Amino acid sequence: MEILVCVTRVPDTAENEIEVNADGSDIERDSLVYSVNEWDNYAVEEAIRIKESSGGSVTVVTVGDGESEEVLRREMAMGADRGILLQDESFAGTDGRGLATILKAEIEKGKYDLILAGAQADAGAGEVGGMLAALLDFPYASLVNSIEIVDDKTLKVGREVDGGNIEMNRISLPCVLSIQTGINEPRYVGIRGIRQVASVQIPVHGAGELGLSTAAVEPRVRREDYFVPELGAGAEMLDGSNEEIIDKLVEMLKAKGGLK
Amino acid sequence: MAAQIFAYIKHKGGAVDDTALELISAARNIDASAEPIALVAGSGADLDQACSQTASTYKQVWKLGNSAFAYPNAEVLRKALLAVLPTDAIVLVPHDAFGMDLSPGLSIKLDATFVADVLALEVSGNDLRVVRQEYGGQVSSHSLCRMDKGAVINIRPGAFAPVEALASIGEVVDKSSYVAEVSTGREFVELIEAVAGDVDITKEDILVSIGRGIGDEEGIQIAEELAEAMGGVVSCSRPIVDAKWMDKSRQVGTSGQTVKPKVYLACGISGSFQHLGGIKGNPFVVAINKNPKAPIFQVADVGIVADLQEFLPELTERINEG
Ligand SMILES: Cc1cc2nc3c(=O)[nH]c(=O)nc-3n(C[C@H](O)[C@H](O)[C@H](O)COP(=O)(O)OP(=O)(O)OC[C@H]3O[C@@H](n4cnc5c(N)ncnc54)[C@H](O)[C@@H]3O)c2cc1C
After folding, report:
1. Rounded to whole angstroms, what are the CA distances from B187 to A210, B160, B299, B311?
2. Which fold has domain B201-321?
3. Residue A247 φ then ψ, to 5°
4. Which conformational region is residue A7 in: left (phi greater than 0), alpha (psi within -120 to 50 degrees), or beta?
5. Do the annotations mark residue B303 as ligand-binding?
6. What is the DSSP letter of A173?
7. Long-range CB contact pairs, A12-21, < 8 A, 24+
8. pLDDT tens across A36-75, in order?
9. Where along the chain is FAD bound (chain B) (predicted)?
10. CB atoms < 10 A from the CB of B124, how many?
11. Global model pTM greater than 0.90
């Protein structure tokens, strides 16, 4: 099976305190730790497992800048065969629809049976996979947490829905799936793996190669600013030494029935 | 505002979801006098019941009946909606597992703007200005969305106050005959219900809940010890289950369990809305997190900025001393 996985480079929210810059035009980017979007990493792992069990290839693609190369290499070190970087000045301020349009243009240059994306990324929108499927006119399933190959035309996929229930679907290839975390345990990537792919050429495709006009990636949703919401009531913050904090906390827990 | 506003109504076994009343509020933030048209899809007696319940708050209900809609398969329903919606429609959909499945593709097929997981909105000139959260809720943003070609807007459940149910009866318009073609490349097979675990966290009064901040699998031990000292049990956020450190039945959240404890200790949990969506009944929430700006501090009653590895064992020791 020829599989394409869409990945993206994001600030690691588990590791970073994200702060807004002085004029609210962006987040503070200095000293942020970046990584591959968590959901995408699961998608790449799943693609590699399918390749290992039934053959084919895995291509990872990202829309980004030069720095995004590092996430492509990381996923190649994991076992993806190729990386493609889609980079152009006109791509910079685009929205989810624009990203899907750019990805579609690249996908149509190749021949893929299965396209995977992460269920969502740092903006929490979860939109690119579904938009891409609709643009390609491929069937789509989101929040997929299991994939079983039925035959060369069909997959059986589980979608995670409310309350931890799983919705099983039959879906025909080619299709687009967005992958939910928990589907697998992504393998560890060691320094050795990274070194092995360090010198592999990564093709860069711009708007020209993809046949995209500026109008095609013009955003319909434009971010005006970032801000930190006012903290409503907010929590009563306990401070002092650990001992003092624990004294106060234990009193509160007793009063609220938090100690039996 | 010229374009008509529609609201996608979720229902289960004929009972309409709370979001139905919230979407009216959201619509009225776009246009104060909006009377959105309800879109109710389904089949059989469940559909009739859902339509009549919806008609107690919506003036107009569009009924989409088809045996293929018995289970809400988003690919099939997208086709149905495309058959009845006008091109410049503004469509409000709850942002949940179904809305995430349906809406991005629907917006492309309608050639409409899409914006996901909206917390607040207002009209700004010809555009819509929306508030969203990004980076796991650590910061918020305003975005301007074009509306001239219509829009599909996913509304975060719980973000808008529900309107009161009206006494008046709305009109149910049967649009089923407009929907000719419902087959797609994706076919619903079955729903597999979540299995119960060894401990039922939904029945516990005291939960020591751990998130990614617990660090590693060994960290679970210090949470277990604290829970035992407090007389409660350990629950967790999703990454702990994804890492297979705890059973799925211990996961709190929209794709996990809904809990109603008296006391909820959130340890190393950032406070994403999918996690908070599983905490009901207004418990006393204590958040322990090393990041003073973690979004969990916006909803907790009491906040402590500390490292779990150090703080939890000290707290346990103190409680055990009595
Ligand atoms: C459709 C969908 C459904 C989902 N359903 C659920 C669900 O049901 N339940 C759920 O929980 N999530 C769910 N999620 C995932 C959710 O979006 C978040 O990714 C998840 O809740 C984050 O978990 P966390 O808070 O444990 O981790 P993180 O967001 O990574 O936060 C970890 C926190 O720990 C703190 N920390 C780190 N180290 C320490 C330390 N040593 N001491 C103290 N604090 C520390 C950090 O400051 C940070 O705030 C869902 C996502 C999607 C897309």
Report:
1. 33, 33, 40, 50
2. Rossmann fold (3.40.50)
3. -55, -50
4. beta
5. no
6. S
7. A13/A122, A13/B135, A13/B136, A13/B138, A13/B270, A14/B212, A14/B213, A14/B239, A14/B270, A17/B138, A17/B291, A17/B293, A18/B135, A18/B138, A18/B139, A19/A228, A19/B139, A19/B293, A20/A226, A20/A227, A20/A228, A20/B139, A21/A226
8. 999 999 999 999 999 999 999 999 999 999 999 999 999 9
9. 212, 237-238, 251-255, 268-275, 289
10. 13
11. yes
**B270: burial class by Cβ within 10 Å (0-12, 13-18, 19+)?**
buried
Residue-level pLDDT at B2: 66
Measured CA to CA, the distance from residue B192 to residue A167 in angstroms comes to 6
- The answer as to CATH 3.40.50.620 being correct for domain B5-179 is yes
Provide the domain count of chain A.
Answer: 1
Could you tell me the two tokens for A128?
Answer: 């690119």
* CA dist., res. A27 & res. A19, Å (int): 6
Whether A247 is in a domain gets the answer no
Beta carbons within 8 Å of A92's beta carbon, 6+ residues apart: none
CA distance A180 to A143: 5
A120 lines ligand 1 (CB under 6 A): yes
Instruction: Using the mean position of ligand 1's atoms as its centre, give its distance from the Cα of residue B188 in Å.
Output: 30
Determine if residue B273 is labeled as part of a ligand binding site.
yes
Q: Taking CA A81 as the corner, what is the angle to CA A80 and CA A82, rounded to the nearest 5 degrees?
A: 100
Measured N-to-C along each axis, helices B219-230 and B308-321 cross at an angle, to the nearest 10 degrees, of 30
User: Residue B143 to residues A39, A95, A231, B138: CA-CA distances in angstroms?
Assistant: 24, 11, 20, 16
Q: What's the complex ipTM?
A: 0.96
Q: Identify whether the C-beta of residue B70 lies closer than 8 Å to the C-beta of residue B42.
A: yes
- Mind telling me how many Å the CA of B239 is from chain A's nearest CA? 8
CATH number, domain with residue A84: 3.40.50.620
Q: Is there a domain that residue A34 lies in? A: yes
Instruction: Say yes or no for a CB contact (<8 Å) between B145 and A127.
Output: no
